[in-house]
Amino acid sequence: MSSDLSALLSATFYEAGDEHRVELIHQRDRAARRRLASLDLAVYDPEGKNLTAVPLDTHQEILDLGTLVGAVAAGRPRVMVLLDARYEEQIFPYRPHHYGFLHRRGSTTAALYYALNAVLGGVPDRIGATGLNNFETYIFLREAFAERYSVLLGNPARFSTAEAQVTAYYATGRLTQVVALAPKAHREVALTSEHAGERLQRVEIKALFRLASYVVGRRADSGELVLFDHLFSYHR
Amino acid sequence: MAVSLRALARRALGVQRTPTYYLPWLTLNGLECALILNNVEVRFKPGENQGPYPATVVQLDADGGVVRTSQVSVTDTADAVELSMTPTLRGYGFVTVSTEHLHSDLYVTVADGESYTATHGRAEFVETYPLRVRLLLGALGALLAPLRRTIPAFVRDQYAYAGPDGRSHLLLLNLSNVTNRIRVVAHRDGARGTTRLVAVPPLGARLLDVGTLAPAASGLTPLALRLEGNAWFNLYLVGAGPRDLAGPLSLMHVK
Questions:
Q1: Domains of chain B, CATH where assigned
Q2: Is B92 helix (H, G, I), strand (E, B) or coil?
Q3: Which fold has domain A131-235?
Q4: Site from B36, B106, B220, B227 to mutate, A interface, most A CB atoms within 10 angstroms
Q5: Domain A7-126 class in CATH
Q6: Chain A (179-208) residues lying within 8 Å, Cβ to Cβ, of chain B
Q7: Is the pTM of this model over 0.90?
Q8: Whole-angstrom Cα distance, residue A165 to residue A137?
């Protein structure tokens, strides 16, 4: 991991049984203009233990995380996957490993496309992002569904434990959880759908620095993903 | 240089760009679709964090006709207004939201009664072409259509996936006032495959099944799609399950 301007660290989570693909080059990065010099994949268990770290062939277009990660993740319901890229800065503002595809094998739910978290370097450093990327929020539909909500948090730092404050907002009340994550550790933080008779309206995550963060909605009966989205930052 | 040439061409042709925030909507097979309008992202921005925030929402159908116009007001940065989309026969299109006062990402949700999923809209623009250019594009488009070609004024590349369990569709949005003939070419493993030409009415939308661009396979097939349109357009990815459009669906923005 590096804060080099031509580096980008992206993070996602792989869950056993998922068909999970990540595009390796960006949609607008034509083959003749590929500028990806190197890409390393590292996988971490919930406690932050490194399960594997391997360089990848940068000529691939799509990564199949099931093939790459499935074996080392065996027995664990979820692992954090970090993609550490080095590339020529001409690629900006379009970056590699930007979008992913996610679907549980055999599931009747809809396949999900999502945007990967850029947790270090990349777009925010290059184009002057106007948001605070360690202070994020997400709004929920108020109707009650047979769905449970959570946030997936991962600490991409090498040395520092990160403390995150996760606050769920209701019409008049709020519930706050404080989560401490060791380096490379990750956790799914459940959000209470209803509190004191009020529906969950919004979640907010505060941390001292950027974490890997996704909002998750799962079918209450099967746990299958139906919502997998990034949060939104506040404007400065 | 390419951007400058494009700007010069727009000026020469008299094309106007109107900043527009838009989101897709889907009500296929009884899906409930709603927007979540809010202004939470300016909560800590002095000068902008005082409501109310009025907005006009225009729902357009697949053929570009106005389904409904709504006036809404977000009272403050803690408020979130949910606005249901009106179902139509085709069941999809896009919706524009005036954002003179709203400076936050707006959500679109799709619910099947048991669960819901969501994505957000895009702050881009709509292009308005003068009559002479519309006539010219129409004539050239008609000439090229039998060859499954279009004027490649705008090009996008997008990965999509096709498989028996995880299906995908492209929701093509025509962000202009001219018929947009969008050519979609699928590449698999570097080899060029199927080509489709889709004519999208002004301010309209069309769904294209990614599965029709790939040979039937037992597993998931990644496809590199190249899309060319004679006018400004964008797309959303529609994810489906084994029941395809008859089952639950998801939506996802692209750049």
A1: 2-125 (no CATH), 130-253 (2.60.290.11)
A2: strand
A3: Hypothetical Protein Tm1070; Chain: A (2.60.290)
A4: B220
A5: mainly beta
A6: 201-202
A7: yes
A8: 12
